[in-house]
Amino acid sequence: MILIAAIAFLAMGLLALIAPQRITRMVGLSTLPMAARNEVRAVYGGFGVAMGALLLLSGRCPHWQPGVVLTVAMALLGMALGRLVAWGVDGRLERFPALFLVGEAALGIGLLLTL
Fold first, then answer.
1. Which of 17, 48, 49, 70 has an alpha carbon within 20 to 30 A of 40's alpha carbon?
2. Pairwise CA distance, residues 64 & 78, whole Å
3. Three-state DSSP state, 91
């Protein structure tokens, strides 16, 4: 599960760094001003790559791994919780956010189960 989560973060992160509008197009934002592209690259790209790399590197540092796994799991579950709140406030959850919610919850719970 750690490897799956690492690959998911790395894939999302690299895509966001290279083509930020491919990420935002999934949620209805087809064009982004420069500042918004910077934000997507930082939050989805840089954060995603860092989390993926940290998960991979934690295998080489067994004393770090439980803390890394717990931290990343909680980040994922926090994202899922944010989507649930948005669903409650907005009254609906569109397709891609719903898929992201399922993926974040599954990866977060899966990571917790490795502890």
1. 70
2. 21
3. coil
Helix (H, G, I), strand (E, B) or coil at 13: helix
Question: What pLDDT does residue 64 have?
Answer: 96
* Token representation of residue 17: 């760094």
Per-residue pLDDT tens digits for 35-92: 999 999 999 999 999 999 999 999 999 999 999 999 999 999 999 999 999 999 999 9
Residue reference for tokens 């500042």: 35
C-alpha–C-alpha distance, residues 106 and 75, integer Å: 12
- Degrees, nearest 5: CA angle 55-60-61: 85
* 3-state SS assignment for residue 3: helix
Distances (CA, A) of 37 to 77, 83, 113: 25, 21, 35
Q: Which of 21, 28, 71, 78 is nearest to 50 (CA)?
A: 71
DSSP secondary structure string for all residues of 76-88: HHHHHHHHHHHHH
